[in-house]
Amino acid sequence: MPVLILTGPPGVGKTTAAASLVARFPRAVHLEADHFFRFIRSGYIEPWKPESNDQNAAVMEIVAAAAAAYAEAGYFTVVDGIVIPGWFFEPIRDALHTAGRRVAFAVLRAPLPVCLARLREREAGPALDAEAIEQLWRSFADVGELEANALDLGNESPAAVADLLARRLEDDLLVA
Question: How much is the pTM?
């Protein structure tokens, strides 16, 4: 089973869909990449700022190493985070390949108003301004050669998204 990198803009439902998907496996790990940023206690730079590049690269390498180790131990592993192609997808994918792991990649997309409404409904978590959220949302509007890995969801339930992901994984349609 490949390591699944599950991405998309804030509010699209990555974390909820990943939780639903991993619950279907007897041995599974859900790595939320955002948590790895929270481990930084001194010198933290907001990850969307240009000066955070070195920090972000280090965090993504650590995420990839953790994902590879869990997969090596026999766990179906999902990495959930804002992993934009052309930015951090390729380094994570390449690190997993170097570790001998197969990689699957899925981009979840929903209309911007759906993502914004979901973000407003959240009770916890860091707040992003609407402009930053829209910029991230636009980053997933066209993922180039990985467009076949994009799933346009509308307002699907997390269970329906997990069903779709499971089918695509089973059919080997998310290979990256």
Answer: 0.91
